[in-house]
Amino acid sequence: MDRLWAPWRSGFVRKKKKGRCIFCLKKKDGKDRFIIKKTKFSVALLNIYPYNNGHIMVSPLKHVKDLKALKDKELLDLMKLVLEMQSLLEKRLRAQGFNIGINVGSVGGAGYNDHVHIHIVPRWPGDTNFMPVISRTKVIPQSLKELYKVLT
């Protein structure tokens, strides 16, 4: 597989995992964590290692491994925030389709398997072009800072 230089990933790869959950927020968290919106029970933030431009993750504020650990009001809040983020991506980025999914547990593909989260990946016609097919390389056309300004 060929490699595309992506220096922003080196911090993630080299960083020692301190046990700090990326979804567990403190009062000072916000713009520096690319938080799009926080509700009473949930938070939406940009994925800083996106599959596609505009990739958002929505998570309950409660630190749980599985949706089954949430109360009905927390589940409703979480899903309403997912729908709101989908609408935001349609409006601001003109997304024409989505991959929305949950990876539960490390075997299920979860990179952060101790705090359940929902991926919202916007899609457009032609966004899967020759780069991933021929060279197995994905191109992200917009910086996180620029994208954050568009979405907030």
Describe it for me?
- This protein is α+β, with helices and mostly antiparallel strands and 152 residues long.
- It has one domain (29-144): HIT-like (HIT family, subunit A).
- The chain has four helices and five strands; from the N terminus they run αβββαββαα.
- The chain has a five-stranded antiparallel β-sheet with strand order 1-2-3-5-4.
- The longest helix is centred in the middle third of the chain and has 22 residues, at 72-93.
- It is globular, with a radius of gyration of 16 Å.
Keywords:
alpha+beta, 4 helices, HIT family, subunit A, single chain, 152 residues
Q: Count helical runs.
A: 4
Total individual domains: 1
List low-confidence stretches: none
Helicity level, as a percent range?
25-40%
Structural class: alpha+beta
Question: What multimeric state do the chains show?
Answer: single chain
**Record field, number of beta strands:** 5
Largest sheet: 5 strands, antiparallel
As a percent range, the share of strand residues is: 15-25%
- The CATH topology comes to HIT family, subunit A
Gap from first CA to last CA: 36 Å
Helix-strand sequence: HEEEHEEHH
- Strand sequence of the main sheet, in spatial order? 1-2-3-5-4
Shape estimate: globular
Mean pLDDT: 83
Name the CATH superfamily classification. HIT-like
Compute the gyration radius: what is it? 16 Å
Briefly summarize what is shown:
It is built from 4 helices and 5 strands, in the order αβββαββαα.
Q: What is the topology?
A:
Blueprint: H1 10-14, E1 35-38, E2 42-46, E3 56-60, H2 72-93, E4 97-102, E5 118-123, H3 130-135, H4 144-151
Antiparallel strand pairs: 1-2, 2-3, 3-5, 4-5
